[in-house]
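Q: What residues go here?
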């Protein structure tokens, strides 16, 4: 006598399932009822005759009932649902998990009746005129029974199917958004083999009710809690793990991107920093307007990216009340999308620090020494004398004429001062020692210590030079004649 390839230890499988929330029993039974041509589903949850057990009844009005009653007990039988991405079943697995957990069960439909008890399975010829009734008796505490009943309220009812729990109508929900997007799914091919695929799906977005945790749903049945902003009900098969209680990271991200693209305008300021929003913003499928909404809400519309190549530009931006966004504030994916969409320009592009010299620019047009006026000679002599006293440096001075050069003067660490006659005041080279001349020299000589106008070092250099200039005027007034 031959033996079957595989044998299933129902008690062993039951022990494996004990760790799962008992609400999965109700969800599996309701899922089957909703998949048929049903208009009404009645759920009844009550205490069983024996202490510590409860009974769950799910009855539907599908005119045809079970098409093949053998599917109730045949694990992995060919399912008519697996070729239809818009039906919940896959392997004829869900109801078998329920039966493994049950002490007794009863299935009554248009094609027959099956009783499951301690002595095994017994088939009977009794039939219903329409619809199906499934009853299971499972071990459950009072708290577990209450959770099963409460879980019915978390269902999202399909349109046109009235569903009740212990006689009370489960209220429907109104979506806050509808959208279509391409999502991974599983569907049977021509040979009946289930394969991963991508398919355009309708997605409904709902506000979680008080006390609910936002979750991903598969056609009204909760699959996994996400903790995101919304319930997301995908109207096609959701790729699940073998326990049917989680999705892949790729699927989750695809859902998050689609939801953010549709709902970004309704996000509050605290919500734009939530992990699901950031996950979506790091994906290349995020819409430019959704990315703009999030970035502007997080950092402000005039924010700039920290610019390591122009540190003074960062300080100038900060002084203009622009938020400086540093590298660690965004993920690599977020930075990629931000740059691609022109958000958060570098501070050096928005508030560049003064840069007297362009490395690719032309040579300055200098005024030859023989063309200097007496006033120019006097200004240059004063600058050289002051630099010797204040900086202890031998200063070289050049005078340029560059109308397109947007600076009045520059000073380099090589102790070279360049004065631009084209941008200085008309009376600068009259030979008088004016406040304007002293102010300009103190400003430029401050760069002997640093080129950063907004640094503490530069501030200290200016005050130090002001004090030295005062003492110099008192000790050597002849220099100022």
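A:
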């Amino acid at each position: 006598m031959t033996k079957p390839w595989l044998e299933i230890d129902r008690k062993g499988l039951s022990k494996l399932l004990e760790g799962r929330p008992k609400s999965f029993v109700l969800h599996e039974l309701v899922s089957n009822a909703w998949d048929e041509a049903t208009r009404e589903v009645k759920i009844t949850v009550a205490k069983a005759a024996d202490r510590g057990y409860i009974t769950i009844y799910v009855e539907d009005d599908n005119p045809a009932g079970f098409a093949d009653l053998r599917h109730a007990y045949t694990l992995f039988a060919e399912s008519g649902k697996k070729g239809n991405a818009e039906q919940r079943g896959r392997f004829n697995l869900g109801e078998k998990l329920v039966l493994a957990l049950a002490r007794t069960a009863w299935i009554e439909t248009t094609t027959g009746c099956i009783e499951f008890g301690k002595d095994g399975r017994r088939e009977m010829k009794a039939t219903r005129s329409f619809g199906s009734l499934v009853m299971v008796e499972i071990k459950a505490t009072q708290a577990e029974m209450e959770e099963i009943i409460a879980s019915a309220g978390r269902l999202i009812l399909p349109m046109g199917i009235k569903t009740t729990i212990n006689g009370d109508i489960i209220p429907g929900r109104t979506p806050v958004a509808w959208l279509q997007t391409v999502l991974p799914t599983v569907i049977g091919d021509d040979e009946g083999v289930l394969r991963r695929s991508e398919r355009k799906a309708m997605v409904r977005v709902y506000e979680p009710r008080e006390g609910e945790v936002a979750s991903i749903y598969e056609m009204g049945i909760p699959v996994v809690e996400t903790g995101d902003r919304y319930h997301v009900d995908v109207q096609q098969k959701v790729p699940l793990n073998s326990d049917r209680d989680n999705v892949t990271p790729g699927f989750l991200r695809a859902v998050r991107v689609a939801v953010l693209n549709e709902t970004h305008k309704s996000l509050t300021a605290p919500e734009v920093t939530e992990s699901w929003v950031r996950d979506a913003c790091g994906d290349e499928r995020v819409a430019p307007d959704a990315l703009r909404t999030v970035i502007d809400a997080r950092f402000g519309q005039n924010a700039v990216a920290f610019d390591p190549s122009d540190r003074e530009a960062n300080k100038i931006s900060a002084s203009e009340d622009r938020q400086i966004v540093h590298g660690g504030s965004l993920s690599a994916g977020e930075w990629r999308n931000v740059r691609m969409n022109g958000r958060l320009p570098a501070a050096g592009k928005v508030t560049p620090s003064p840069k007297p010299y362009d490395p690719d620019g032309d040579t300055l047009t200098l005024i030859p020494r023989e063309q200097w006026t007496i006033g120019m000679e006097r200004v240059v002599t004063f600058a050289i004398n002051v630099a010797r006293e204040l900086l202890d440096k031998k200063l070289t001075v050049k005078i340029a004429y560059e109308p397109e050069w947007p600076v009045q003067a520059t000073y380099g660490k090589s102790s070279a001062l360049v004065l631009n006659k084209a941008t200085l005041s008309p009376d600068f080279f009259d030979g008088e020692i004016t406040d304007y001349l002293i102010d300009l020299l103190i400003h430029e000589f401050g760069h002997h210590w640093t080129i950063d106008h907004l640094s503490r070092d530069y501030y200290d250099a200016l005050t130090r030079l002001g004090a030295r200039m005062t003492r110099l005027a008192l000790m050597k007034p002849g220099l100022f004649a």
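A: Context that may help when evaluating the design: The CA atoms of residues 80 and 90 lie 8 Å apart. The chain has a mean pLDDT of 87.
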